[in-house]
């Protein structure tokens, strides 16, 4: 068994539950907040803020939420919240008592919400199963997305981040990877926000400049990884496993990456996440990454996320070369 799995769960009751209950099926992945982050004051602040916000919003309907995980999983509160905030009419029963009906209700609610938020499935940080399973991380991501969309002026506690552990069952046993994940934006970093805004505008309003930026980044990458006999033709597909990104960082920063520390030919999403997380850690330690990046976005081939990370390297080393 991976020692990180044991280290991540310092509370015996939590560990025992994972070892004795068949809650992760073979081939399934589950991302959880590490217990060391559970008592994070900023996380507690966000939970209290969201709870009070929901209760204020639904006060006239006499709905009182005490626990985000326990009170939202069946879809009832979400149903009322969306009808109240967005005047959305949902074709589902108000009260679903059985798990089958709760799953169906959540499916309808989350489908409508995804269309409202204009999010593709790969961009969602929650699912029917995770909400139904009372997963705190998924529930928080969902509520933050709802709040930001329907009440954009709401002053959510900024810079809330947690340590997570992703667990996957394989034929060889439990496999884990660790990461730091942001739940709310880091509003303390104005420079990072302006950089994000620039890329948002590039993607939405300037397709001609977008192509030119891609070309410049590709040339920059090829100039350096070409020394290793590599050729990059597609940013989206060739950076999703983290390998070329790690090799590029090594070339630019002037150090050798031990092959035992990453997967040169990753065979699963977990191995790709491991590589990407390692690359992001190296960038952060080197002072090159001063904004939050979701490693899953890169693994899923999110072009905007990949280009933002590459631009961090490009902006520093291109300037030095000139």
Write the topology of this structure.
Blueprint: H1 3-8, H2 12-20, E1 29-33, H3 35-38, H4 41-57, H5 68-72, H6 76-86, H7 99-117, H8 128-132, H9 136-150, E2 161-170, E3 173-182, H10 190-205, H11 207-225, H12 235-238, H13 243-253, H14 269-285, H15 295-299, H16 303-321
Antiparallel strand pairs: 1-2, 2-3
Helix pairs in contact: 11-16, 13-14
SS class = mainly alpha
Please state the average pLDDT score.
Answer: 80
How much strand content do the residues show? Answer: 5-15%
End-to-end distance, in Å? Answer: 50 Å
Low-pLDDT stretches: 1-22, 190-194
Radius of gyration over alpha carbons?
21 Å
Shape: globular
Q: State the total count of DSSP E strands.
A: 3
- Give the helix level as a range of percent: 55-70%
- Largest sheet strand order: 1-2-3
Q: Note the run of SSEs as H and E.
A: HHEHHHHHHHEEHHHHHHH
Quickly count the helices.
16
The main pleated sheet reads as: 3 strands, antiparallel
Function: Plays a role with ILK in promoting the cell adhesion and spreading of leukocytes.
Keywords: Acetylation, Actin-binding, Cell adhesion, Cell membrane, Cytoplasm, Cytoskeleton, Membrane, Repeat
Domain Calponin-homology (CH): 44-151, 211-318
GO cellular component, one term: focal adhesion
């Amino acid at each position: 068994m991976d020692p990180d799995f044991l280290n991540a769960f310092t509370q015996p009751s939590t560990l025992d539950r994972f070892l004795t209950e068949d809650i992760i099926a073979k081939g399934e992945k589950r991302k959880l907040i590490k217990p060391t982050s559970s008592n994070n004051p900023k996380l507690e602040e966000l939970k209290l803020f969201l709870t009070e916000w929901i209760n204020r919003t639904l006060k006239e309907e006499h709905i009182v939420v005490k626990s985000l995980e326990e009170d939202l999983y069946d879809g009832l509160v979400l149903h009322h919240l969306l009808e109240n905030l967005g005047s959305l009419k949902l074709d589902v029963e108000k009260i679903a008592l059985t798990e089958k009906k709760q799953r169906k209700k959540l499916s309808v609610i989350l489908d409508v919400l995804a269309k409202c938020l204009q999010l593709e499935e790969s961009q969602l940080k929650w699912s029917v199963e995770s909400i139904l399973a009372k997963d705190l991380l998924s529930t928080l991501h969902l509520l933050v997305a709802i709040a930001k969309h329907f009440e954009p002026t709401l002053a959510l506690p900024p810079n809330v981040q947690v340590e997570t552990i992703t667990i996957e069952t394989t034929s060889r046993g439990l496999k884990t990877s660790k990461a730091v994940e942001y739940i709310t934006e880091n509003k303390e970093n104005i420079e990072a926000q302006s950089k994000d805004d620039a890329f948002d505008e590039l993607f939405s309003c300037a397709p001609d400049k977008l192509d030119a930026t891609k070309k410049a980044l590709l040339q920059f990458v090829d100039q350096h990884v070409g020394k290793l006999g590599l050729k990059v033709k597609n940013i989206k597909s060739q950076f999703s496993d983290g390998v070329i990104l790690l090799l590029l960082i090594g070339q630019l920063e002037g150090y050798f990456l031990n092959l035992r520390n990453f997967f040169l030919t990753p065979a699963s999403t977990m191995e790709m996440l491991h590589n990407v997380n390692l690359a992001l850690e190296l960038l952060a330690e080197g002072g090159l990454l001063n904004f939050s990046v979701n490693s899953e976005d890169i693994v899923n081939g999110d072009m905007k996320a990949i280009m933002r990370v590459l631009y961090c390297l490009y902006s520093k080393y291109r300037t030095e070369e000139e």
